[in-house]
Each structure stands twice: as C-alpha cells, then as structure tokens.
Specification:
Length: 75
Amino acid sequence: MALVKATHRYARISATKVRPLADLVRNQSVEDALDALRYLPNRGARLLEQVILSAQANAAEQAAHVGRLKITEAR
C-alpha cells in the first residue's frame, strides 16, 4: 500500500493544543478518526479533520483503496 501524505501549513494554532488530538487519532482508521474528531468542540479538531479529508482525497487520486486507510503518523 502506498504512503499518502497531507499537511496543513501555516495553521495559526499552537502545537500544545493540537497534540492531544493528534494522539487521539494516531493508529486509527480514517473513518474512526473522523468520527472521533467530528464531535469534539476544539478548533484543532476542525484543522485535523481537514488534513485527514485531504489525505483521503490524495489516496483516491492515487487510486488507493480508501476504505483501508490508517493514520500512521500525526504530528
């Protein structure tokens, strides 16, 4: 399976606020991570959700199986 990468550049939020959310979604499937982030009130959750959706779109562009995606690295 190919590695799919997505980044959010120039995010105006501290790493201290986003790191617990990244720990939450790390090593989960994309669907589980999106479900977990969707119901959190944090602004960082919206930013991570955008990055995960972007990675999912990148995988679809590379003709990878989108249903089997797993988040291996989030920093």
